[in-house]
Specification:
With about 140 residues, the protein is an alpha/beta fold. It has one domain (about 1-135): 3-Layer(aba) Sandwich (Rossmann fold), CATH 3.40.50.1000. The chain is about 35% helix and about 20% strand. The chain is built from five helices and five strands; from the N terminus they run αβααβαβαββ. Strands 3-4-5 form a three-stranded parallel β-sheet, covered by helices on one side. Strands 1-2 form a two-stranded parallel sheet. Strand 3, helix 5 and strand 4 (about 110-115) form a beta-alpha-beta unit. Zinc ion (ZN) binds near residues 60 and 69.
Length: about 140
């Protein structure tokens, strides 16, 4: 995965993490715990020469009806506003259909759904590409 990310960077992309964290609303962990894990994740990326431009997370539960939890586009629109992103040149890579739906709702049409070992409804997916692993991205770019 780090190799794929390094290649995205070589292609001129910046990488942003957009993540649903309803475990916060459910009380499984708090924002401080998330920060600790997030900092560790960012350090791992950095060790592997991948720079993560930003991280957006939704701390709400599904029934909170916020506008940030994917499949809603809120976090992507925040990222767009903060970093002045050209959505028509951007790609969403996700492992759930909600990622693809959020991207489409935010104006991103280039989407990759990664199977990564769990069940997805491929026949009903709006993803433009479906791959087994991020290692297979070179079939697309
Ligand atoms: Zn939210």
């Amino acid at each position: 995965m780090f190799a794929a990310c390094r290649n995205f960077q070589k292609l001129g992309f910046q990488i942003i993490i957009i993540t649903n964290q309803s475990g916060i609303a459910k009380g499984f962990y708090d924002e401080n715990d998330f920060d600790i894990v997030n900092n560790w994740v960012l350090a791992e990326f950095k060790k592997n020469r991948v720079n993560i431009l930003d991280v957006f997370f939704c701390p709400h539960a599904p029934d909170d009806n916020c506008n940030c939890r994917k499949p809603k586009p809120g976090m992507l629109l925040q990222a767009q506003a903060k970093h002045n992103i050209a959505m028509n040149k951007s790609w969403m890579i996700g492992d759930k259909e909600a990622d693809i739906q959020a991207a489409n709702a935010a104006g991103i049409t280039n989407t990759i759904l990664v199977r990564s070992g769990h069940k997805i409804n491929e026949a009903n997916s709006n993803a433009t590409h479906i791959i087994d692993s991020l290692k297979d991205y070179s079939d697309i770019f």
